[in-house]
Specification:
Length: 316
């Protein structure tokens, strides 16, 4: 038998710690309160025992598998959250643990079904240069071919900051024979938005916002306020190449806009999806589309769980 000593602020927390590490495979031998004179703190020390086989198995297997998933870009936080939720039976076997983690990721990822009849207005927000405008153009083309000829689609452009932004979307609108409305003020937006009440689909482009640019964010919030009935679906466009630290800041900024769905852009530019998976697991947001290249209009796909998992798993 191996004895392990664990210390935590309370007996309950010490026991929880032992359970997290060894699940049901340990025996509690003793528990006592200890007083740390230097820190003037009381804590609880427990001693647990388990077979040598269990002890070696649990710690080394978990560490090996953790290294594997962290190499794939999954964060330690996401990995630990998943492992804590698993049945203890899988923790003693490498293959079973990997399979259980992948199954957990699979069930936790959420896909939003494509729906072009109920969601009539979509706004696209996100950091600068992620592909918002090209994604709108690709979707406008997709929706045009999915909808009948009599259906009406309009493009609204709220990006009055970037030089050439109006021309960029106007170019796509012309190619697709769609109406395009460049907007510079709130009043203009209100007028145009209300005049399009009978349109079947309205796609709204916005200025790219860096996570620390509150001025542009507030402007977007004001524009969204024009829609009193909260009919606008907010699509956050995120590049798959984003770093986890940046994604956290981006989320904090854009969550002000009540994000409905995530579009992952630049799928073709990376093979490492751990960062994105960690983000989606932490924030439980549904994915709607992937963009997979610069080609207009074909480089866009409806989001697909198998595809993202396949890319993530790679050479496991
Ligand atoms: N490789 C790759 N490039 C893409 C993809 N989508 C867009 N791009 C490229 O990314 C660049 C920026 O695209 P835009 O659509 O202008 O991005 P944006 O988010 O509207 O940019 P701002 O309006 O400046 O914030 C362009 O060169 C696009 O061709 C994609 O899926 N893969
Ligand atoms: Mg743009």
């Amino acid at each position: 038998m191996i004895k392990v000593t664990l210390v935590a602020p309370t007996p309950q927390e010490a026991y929880k710690l032992a359970y997290q590490k060894y699940r049901n495979n340990f025996k509690l031998l003793s528990a006592k309160q200890i007083y740390n004179e230097k820190k003037r703190e009381i804590s609880c020390e427990i001693v647990v025992a388990m077979s040598k086989k269990n002890f070696l198995n649990f710690d080394t297997i978990k560490e090996d598998i953790q290294t594997l998933f962290l190499q794939k870009g999954l964060t330690e936080e996401a990995f630990n959250t998943i492992v804590k939720s698993l049945d203890s039976a899988v923790l003693g076997n490498k293959e079973e643990l990997v399979t259980a983690i992948l199954q957990k990721i699979d069930t936790s990822l959420c896909i939003q079904d494509e729906n072009i009849t109920d969601t009539r207005v979509k706004i696209f927000v996100g950091p600068t240069g992620v592909g918002k405008t090209t994604t709108i153009a690709k979707l406008a083309s997709r929706y045009s071919s999915m909808m009948g000829k009599k259906e009406r689609i309009a493009l609204i452009n709220l990006d009055s900051f970037k030089v050439g932004a109006f021309e960029q979307l106007a170019h796509f609108a012309k190619l697709l024979h769609l109406q395009h409305f460049p907007i510079s003020t709130l009043q203009e937006f209100e007028e145009v938005y209300n005049s399009l009440i009978n349109y079947d689909m309205i796609l709204i482009d916005t200025t790219g916002i860096s996570p620390y640019d509150t001025k542009k964010l507030i402007k977007t919030v004001e524009y969204l306020g024009v829609d009193k009935r909260k009919n606008i679906e907010v699509n956050l466009v995120l590049s798959t190449t984003v770093k986890y630290e940046d994604i956290q800041a981006i989320h904090e900024t854009f969550s002000f806009l009540n994000i409905n769905t995530i579009i992952l852009s630049k799928f073709d530019e990376t093979k490492y999806f751990g960062t994105i998976i960690s983000y989606l697991l932490t924030h439980s947001l549904p994915l709607s589309y992937f963009t997979i290249g610069q080609n207009f209009p074909e480089d866009i796909r409806v989001a697909n769980k198998e595809y993202i998992l396949e890319q993530f798993i790679g050479e496991f």
